[in-house]
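A favour, since you know our structure tokens better than I do. Just paste the record in under my message, thanks.
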Amino acid sequence: MIEEQLAHDVLEEALTRGGDFADLYVERRKTVALNLEDGRLERSSTGFDLGASVRVFSGRNISFVSTDSIDEGSLREAARLAGEGSSDGGASVRRLEAVRGSSRHPVEEPPAQTPAADKAGLLAAADDAARAAGPEIVQASCNYSDVVSEVLVANSEGVLAADERTRVRMSVQVVGARGGITQTGFESVGAHRGMELFARNQAADIGEAAARKAITMLDSRPAPSGKMPVVLHRGFGGVLFHEACGHGLEADAIEKGASVFRDKLGHKVASGLVTLIDDGSVPNAWGSGAVDDEGVPTRRNVLIDAGELTGFLYDRLRARNAGAQPTGNGRRQSYRHTPIPRMTNTFITGGDAPVDEIFAATDRGFFAKTLAGGQVDPATGDFVFGVSEGYLIEKGRVTTPLRGATLIGNGLVALNNIDLVADDFEMHIGVCGKDGQGVPVGSGQPTLRILDLTIGGTEVG
């Protein structure tokens, strides 16, 4: 996008008045989005974004300036403004050398080669399948998006890194109604891939899966309340640990003292069955990339190892403040945003218990198959999560669908109460919001059981 010499010159400009570190981030992005509402194409848009930002560290002071142009004059002006607040330091810019990150994210069918009409056809197939699932389906909303972004990162320590990220996603949300009761169903797929995503995930299957959830929940009864064992379905339960535990392991929360994990490094924080990983290098995973948004190669970070807290997630700034090394977790929504510590693909690894045995060992409990949104206090780990698809477990069998359930608990307590972990690991996708920035993340886990968790419902359990 820009020449190496220009990147070097911009960094030198940023450090002219002092400062001990500077970096340059350049981004070009193309976004395609289509929306089909009740069989009618309501939106088809293509957007382009191009810009850059310059950041300067001067002691504990940070300056950040972004620009919507990447011509030499605009970049130099951004660098000059970013460097104005520097009074000490005076680092020089090392010779830039290319950083090689993971290249395990091949794209077989670039989305730009697929006509918009074919993308709309995928939505139509999903809509048709959702409606064919039953007369109960009264509304359907189908969405498709692809985002292709090219980024370049250079810094005064000699790092020069480039990455191209292609993400394709499709989601279907339906409303089912019967006898005055309405329920929703949602299904989505996405990956750091091209259109080959739909060879593995048929559009019609996505629509049908969303519809089946809504229809099933029309037969549900109000959830009971009380404490009981909770079985979390593979994949979907990962968002609970992402929210209730993952954010507390990001180094900015640790630095502020706003994390329940702040004084627990090297201590037992979970059941010995729990190993929690964050890995931005998983091939073709939704939250993956070759490097993070500070040019640090992504990697596998073990956060909890067999129950022991072993690490945190760092960007360059928090690593510098803590005397640690960055972990490949400095992420930003765009060039207009500063990088902060963020998860990538966060998951609990698989165990060795057969799934059937987990249910068989549960005489009476709750099966949380799909979670909805939730609220978490990272400082305490306390959480409340909605359940969009849940079932009663009776005498080792999944029986009645239940609606209106919430999971209420504490992240540390829940981690320690995991007593069975299956061998059916699965990942799911999402967009995580933090400090006004949204980034793509993966979360997952195998089917597992939390021995004791509070269910919020409308009936006495």
Remarks:
- Residues 116-132 form the longest helix (17 residues).
